[in-house]
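Pasting as-is:
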Amino acid sequence: MIALLFSLLTVTMGLNYFGRTNAGMALFLITLALSVYWLKFHATSTLTIQL
């Protein structure tokens, strides 16, 4: 999941670099929403240690 988030942010930077700021902003907001979901999921999931 973290690799997906980093790749989406890389694409966002590429879009903004080439002047596609509207598409870059939309993709950034989608990536931001996914990041918050991912953080909330990991912050609230129970820790299981299998020995």
